[in-house]
Design a protein that fits this description.
Elements lengths: L18 H13 L9 H9 L4 H15 L5 H29 L4 H6 L31 H17 L5 E4 L7 E4 L2 H14 L5 H21 L5
Antiparallel strand pairs: 1-2
């Protein structure tokens, strides 16, 4: 496992007065709002679809892939699942270290208080609410879903290669399945889901996935190595 919670701590979020922040702010303000957004029906659906338990998604994905690789021995299947879950746990630790190091504000706070951020490219909207309704009660940067997903995708790609087609369901939308050509494609959709859901900026999703991938590579090099 990782040596310390801050071992993979990322650089902080962009300055509130930067163009990068304004771009991300305006994207989530437009695409993540509960009503009046130009989101397509599919974009709204995917935001809701991915609003469940992150490790559970990736364990189901792993199960789907393992079942399609019937030549795997029992010990190899066990190693895949063990590494996957250790890595996701460590990725969550690294993520929460960053969250409470930077304590960055969520879109719901940033958009309704945008007249206080010192950035002329952001405009306040006191009535703005996110598509997903309830914003998680912990700091925004980095995205937990993206960090854990980036770590899980890296583990599965290491064992099976990135380009493995799979189907995945969601406890948030029973009976609905989404199809992906690769693990990385699912991670990119998860980035969109968090932005379209109105709870994350895109930079927090991208940076989160990078942190997760770094955690995964370290753990795979130092833990549960094959005999």
């Amino acid at each position: 496992s990782i040596r310390a919670p801050n071992q993979f701590r990322p650089a902080g979020p962009p300055s509130l007065t930067s163009d990068e922040y304004a771009t991300a702010f305006n994207e989530v303000k437009l695409m993540g709002r509960a009503s009046g957004s130009p989101r397509t029906l599919d974009q709204t659906s995917l935001a809701i679809f991915w609003a469940g338990n992150t490790p559970a998604y990736w364990n189901r994905i792993a199960g789907f892939i393992i079942n399609n690789h019937r030549q795997l021995t029992l010990i190899r299947k066990a190693r895949v699942l063990a590494l996957l879950n250790v890595v996701m746990a460590d990725a969550a630790i690294a993520c929460w270290d960053a969250k409470y190091e930077y304590v960055f504000w969520r879109p719901i706070t940033a958009i309704t208080l945008a007249d206080l951020d010192g950035n002329p490219a952001t405009e306040v909207d006191h009535d703005w609410t996110p598509l997903l309704g309830v914003t998680p009660s912990h700091p925004e940067y980095i995205s937990g879903h993206s960090t854990v997903s980036g770590s899980a995708a890296t583990v599965l790609a290491n064992f099976f290669g990135d380009k493995n087609a799979f189907l995945i369901d969601s406890e948030k939308m029973p009976g609905v399945w989404r199809a992906f050509p690769s693990f990385s494609a699912a991670v990119l959709e998860i980035h969109n889901a968090r932005v379209f859901g109105g709870i994350h900026y895109r930079f927090s999703c991208v940076e989160g996935s990078a942190v997760g991938a770094s955690v995964a590579r370290f753990v795979m090099q130092h833990s549960m190595r094959p005999i």
